[in-house]
Design a protein that fits this description.
Length: about 375
């Protein structure tokens, strides 16, 4: 007879795994796709679907522990929901495959599945319904809001739909970038200057914390400003410690390189910086008044709450363009193709192109040839 693992050991193991997967989140951490029962679900219980990023699966299971829910885990190459959906690893094909093969159809008497709101950039809801008969509803942006979402009859208010970049999330991203970089630098430096390892590791972690805490809050030239400040602090610390010329040169040069490395993917690493710049053009969302029928799918999936609904007649306004991060979720989900990206010269990219081309690691779409642009009539 096997012995059960003490509760405190299980909790400690889960905590350590959370920390490890947070600081090394750039590495895919996959868990087995399939069907899992949370609580005691029956044939009427809701079906929640998420990616197979292990940290996400465990977090979803934890927050739903007091509910009776069927949890479907779909393949996403071990990548989190937003990155996987935007990059083409968690899309319509993966959702349809998971629903058809996991056995959920034999467990429930309905065909309604709740997806993370942040998967809307890559999952075409109506195509899922067409291909396997399941109706997709996009739930809250954060897993922690799932119990409230289910308790309120699967209704999303703005607090559940809108993404944030709170202090804890900023700290998570700082360590996710800073820890691996510090580890690599320490490994490279240790054979030659072992006494430099700790100061360099501290410098890298503190720089990462400064960038993810302040970068978007500095009004002008944040990269140059942070480089200058961090370089000054590093030089002062080395001088006070009596460092030699090599240490002073390192303190002079290294912070600038470090800031450049930590900010090159800032749009792709944060939920508030505008991505999808399309070769630096100033693209913005346009609503076609003739095509819009007030379906409001764009309103439901926008992670920045940029849209305002009008009920009589039914219409949608892109009322807060300053908040738009150009993720394209609204365009992907609009069943009327009433939304598209347009630049200042009137050139536009049609919805089908947005659905086809995904975001790369820099938060940019790989659309770069003129034949993919629709030019305005002369």
């Amino acid at each position: 007879m096997s012995e059960s693992i003490p509760v405190y050991k299980a909790v400690l193991y889960s905590l350590l795994l959370d920390i490890l997967q947070t600081v090394l989140r750039m590495i895919p951490w996959s868990t087995e796709p399939g069907l899992y029962a949370v609580g005691n679900p029956d044939s009427d219980s809701p079906v929640v679907l998420t990616c197979n990023y292990d940290l996400t699966v465990r977090q979803v299971a934890r927050v739903l522990a007091e509910n009776d829910v069927w949890l479907v885990v779909a393949p996403s190459s071990g990548i989190n929901v937003w990155c996987a959906a935007a990059g083409g690893h968690f899309g319509t094909h993966q959702i349809v495959t998971a629903l058809k093969t996991c056995g959920i159809e034999a467990q429930v008497n309905h065909r309604r599945v709740i997806l993370p709101q942040l998967s809307a950039t890559g999952v075409l809801a109506r195509e899922v319904s067409k291909r396997c008969g399941w109706k997709v509803r996009f739930g809250p942006a954060y897993a922690t809001d799932l119990p409230r979402y289910l308790a309120t009859g699967q209704k999303n208010d703005e607090s559940m739909r809108r993404v944030h970049f709170r202090a804890f999330e900023r700290m998570e991203m700082a360590f996710a970038w800073g820890f691996p970089m510090a580890l690599v630098v320490v490994i490279l430096v240790a054979p030659f200057r072992s006494n430099w390892c700790l100061p360099l590791a501290i410098l890298i972690i503190c720089t990462a914390l400064a960038i993810f805490s302040l970068y978007d809050r500095i009004p002008s030239k944040p990269g140059i400003t942070l480089s200058a400040v961090i370089t000054g602090i590093a030089l002062a610390c080395v001088w006070a410690a009596g460092g030699n010329i090599g240490a002073l040169l390192t303190a002079l040069i290294f912070p600038g390189i470090l800031v450049a490395l930590l900010t090159f993917d800032y749009p792709g690493s944060t939920p508030i910086a505008g991505g999808a710049h399309f070769e630096e053009r100033n693209w913005h969302i346009v609503v076609d008044a003739e095509r819009c029928r007030g379906v409001f799918s764009c309103f439901e999936v926008c992670p920045e709450a940029c849209f305002t609904k009008q009920d009589n007649p039914r219409f949608i306004y892109h009322s807060s363009p300053d908040r738009c991060i150009r993720c394209g979720a609204c365009i992907v989900q609009c069943s009327q193709d009433a939304l598209w990206f347009e630049d200042e010269q009137g050139q536009r990219i049609e919805p089908e192109q947005i659905r086809r081309y995904k975001l790369n690691l820099l938060g940019q779409r790989t659309i770069n040839t003129e034949d993919q642009f629709i030019k305005p009539p002369v």
